[in-house]
Amino acid sequence: MCTHEIAEASLIEDIIKQTVSEAAALALDSVVFGAQADNGAVPQGLLNGVTARTGVTGGGVNALSGDSDNCLPTSQPIVPAETPSWSPPCHSLPL
Q1: How many angstroms separate the Cα of 75 from the Cα of each of 47, 68, 72, 78?
Q2: Count of structural domains, the chain
Q3: How many helices (H) and strands (E) does the chain have?
Q4: Closest CA to 36 of 22, 54, 50
Q5: pLDDT at position 90, please?
Q6: Where do runs of H (alpha helix) occur along 1-95?
Q7: pLDDT band (50, 70, 90) for residue 87
Q8: Residue 92 lies in a domain
Q9: Residue 41 domain-assigned (yes or no)
């Protein structure tokens, strides 16, 4: 029990604030960075639908190359829908 006298004589208020703040941050992090789907009560986590990939063992350049290959998409390559057209700015200015 925290009385007014105890609070004045100690740092109990600061300790309680710090503890509650850390607990709230941990709870918020677990929801925001979670893998849960949106269920109406809890929002969808950022990791929902993300599949973990294992890293290449051994270290060195081969592991770096393998890990960077694992970061690339496994489906179709990204191709622009159409080639962007561009003209130099001087051609679009009135004379």
Answers
A1: 19, 16, 9, 9
A2: 1
A3: 4, 0
A4: 50
A5: 58
A6: 4-9, 12-32, 60-71, 89-92
A7: low
A8: no
A9: no
Half-sphere exposure of 56 (CA within 13 A, CB side): 13
Token pair recorded at residue 74: 């496994």
Q: Using CA atoms, how far apart are residues 23 and 26, in angstroms rounded to an integer?
A: 5
* CA distances to 1, 2, 15, 19, 92 from 5, in Å: 11, 8, 16, 21, 77
Q: For 16-65, write each residue's pLDDT tens digit.
A: 899 999 999 999 998 999 989 999 888 899 988 888 778 888 888 888 88
- Expressed as residue numbers, the domain containing 1 is 1-33
